[in-house]
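Summary for the lay section of the report: proteins are chains of building blocks that fold into shapes. Here we show the chain for MmgE/PrpD family protein and then a coded description of the shape we predicted for it.
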Amino acid sequence: MKQHEVRVYRSEEQLAREDQLAWKLAEIAADKVEVTDDVTDMVINRVIDNASVAAASLNRAPIVAARGQATAHPASRHGEGANVFGLPQGERTSPEWAAWANGVAVRELDYHDTFLAAEYSHPADNIPAVVAVAQHLANARGLTGNDVVRGIVTAYEVQVDLVKSISLHKHKIDHVAHIGPSASAGIGTLLGLDTETIFQAIGQGLHTTTATRQSRKGEISTWKAHAPAFAGKLAVEAVDRAMRGQTSPTPIYEGEDGVIAWMLDGPDARYEISLPEAGEVKRAILDTYTKEHSAEYQAQAWIDLARKLNREHPELVSSPERIESVVIHTSHHTHYVIGSGANDPQKYDPTASRETLDHSIPYIFTVALQDGAWHHVDSYAPERAGRPDTVALWQKVTTREDAEWTRRYHSLDISEKAFGGAVVITLNDGNVITDEIAVADAHPLGARPFAREQYIAKFRTLATDVLGEDEVERFLSVAQRLPELRADELGQLTIVAREGLLIASPADGIF
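The coded shape description reads as follows.
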């Protein structure tokens, strides 16, 4: 990896194109370096993981709406269209709209992969856009499963490298602003585009995907699932424009009226960003991790710790009135985004939306402690959230920032990077129960790291009732052959719901 300094330049300084961050990202995308076997295996895992969580959400309202919007747009003229999750393989739509619908399905349950550093991210949000373009242009351009793998690997590399160095949330910019560039780069690799074209697409992708973080504040709305899908859709459109010779604002990152100067750290900002050198293998996907539980990633370890406390201290469950307080000592992010440090009363509201509850560590820890388990539907049910003993205990749970857990959260040393903390449970008789956890059980360094077996088990658990056993096995067979898929097989890289299962989208929109 090579370090690159990124700063703001006045217009008269004339920053050369090859010295701009967007150009360097484009060079990564245009580099035809081979993909290693371990990276390919992880790409397959994440394709399966995305299908798992998409299947489980196909009849949730945001997906129903997005699917209706997508199917209102027929395949565009230059390709054969792309598949929409849940629909028959032969029913295709325009690629940017397939990326939209499938992206919403993947994101809805907050249940797929994550990478956390200076910024937060769900890198698998890139996959729907890359696959949609591949399906649309497969036969026209002779694209194969190997091209899809390479595109996904680039998207992960670009997003992870940006997330390691550039914080968006510090300035209340939503993390999907890193998806615009990463998805554009991934599509560029997929299509074998030149550096200039990818450079223009990355600039447009970033310029059109910057938005505020209000989507993750207070009462969280259904837009949370739509936000990354919108970024992926805009990336498809940005690449299309760039391929037609259209240009982007330049320099998009470093300009005196650019993203860094006015949306991030300001005109005096300086970043050090590590990027692969020419010919260097892209391995960033191996630094990312998926979720065993349907909740914000910082909650994963706390669900596991709560389940452990449920087993080891049954008295906490049988007599919750004995608990005087529960204090979770954790990182800055966990405290201020999903903890009591957010100062969001909605995080303690039993009538709050599911999207709000999956960003409330006081709620999540309480339910996991009481139930000794976590379920992507049952744990968020209104009757579960409103149970009197749960509400009473929930109000006693607070979080505090701990400097050491914050340091470990931001560490770039994967061996010490942590997303947990310590919990102190004080009983009304004066006794205190303490425990701690660094990473979730499913994390690569956790108690039960996810491997192919666990990804497949997750898919079968979430998808069998929705798809049927035959469709589950068909998709698993196709996904695990991803690098070998021919152009005429890429349309099989989708999931088809049982006949009659899908809810029809409301017909009172514009499209």
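Put simply, here is one thing we learned. The domain at 297-437 is CATH 3.30.1330.120 (60s Ribosomal Protein L30; Chain: A;).
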